[in-house]
From TrEMBL:
It comes from the Eukaryota. Keywords: Cell membrane, Ion transport, Membrane, Sodium, Sodium transport, Transmembrane, Transmembrane helix, Transport. It comes from Rotaria socialis. It is a multi-pass membrane protein. This is Cation/H+ exchanger transmembrane domain-containing protein. The keyword Cytoplasm does not apply. PANTHER family: SODIUM/HYDROGEN EXCHANGER (PTHR10110), SODIUM_HYDROGEN EXCHANGER 7 (PTHR10110:SF86).
Length: 212
């Protein structure tokens, strides 16, 4: 579904020529429309659909007019910045309320498990980078081994993971203990990636000499 939507989005954008407002609104509207159709109407993973669509559009990025590419990138950067703020504010309030009742399901050893999971995620990212290297190269992106290190270390900051954790926590058919532990571990991993990876990424870039 995501691939089909990507093809459709590229086709629509190819019909436009240097129409700044229309192209910005089109990309924004298509993203919301496809997410809604995937999640509500079709019952498939909206997140995966958006990822696949985004990858296809990145491969055909010149479907966006040359004069519009810089303004549209700046616009989306601002939108993403404010959306991230809203995500962490809203989910922080909900998570604080949800975690009040987790004491009976979360033990001290779970903090240790969170650290193990945090380390395991970095190993998983490294393996994913190695396995996907041929596909990344095929897509036209040539990364050095230093850039792969930054790719593995930087990773994601947890906003999407936190949203997915809330979705799991809202599923009452899942055992309460499992829901609370999933919520706890994802919150801990998001906290660790924000405080450790987020603050040290710039030093890793400098150490590898990629800041020029």
């Amino acid at each position: 579904f995501g691939l089909a939507c990507g093809i459709l989005a590229v086709f629509i954008l190819n019909l436009l020529n240097n129409e700044l407002e229309i192209e910005i609104i089109s990309t924004f509207g298509l993203a919301y429309l496809i997410f809604y159709l995937a999640d509500v109407e079709l019952g498939v993973s909206a997140v995966l659909a958006m990822v696949v669509m985004g990858l296809y559009m990145a491969k055909h990025k010149y479907c966006i007019s040359s004069r519009v590419q810089l303004p549209i990138a700046s616009t989306w950067r601002i939108i993403i910045y404010f959306i991230n703020i809203l995500i962490f504010m809203i989910t922080g309030i909900i998570l604080a309320h949800s975690l009040v009742g987790t004491q009976k399901h979360v033990d001290a050893i779970d903090f240790g498990y969170s650290i193990v999971l945090y380390l395991a995620l970095h190993i998983a990212r490294l393996l994913a980078a190695v396995i996907l290297h041929p596909f990344i190269k095929w897509s036209g992106v040539n990364l050095s081994w230093k850039e792969y290190i930054v790719l593995v270390w930087s990773g994601l900051r947890g906003s999407m993971a936190v949203i997915l954790a809330l979705m799991v926590d809202s599923e009452k058919v899942i055992d309460e203990m499992i829901r609370h532990r999933v919520l706890f571990h994802i919150c801990m991993i998001a906290l660790l990636t924000l405080t450790i990876n987020g603050t040290s990424s710039k030093f890793v870039v400098r150490f590898l000499g990629l800041n020029h």
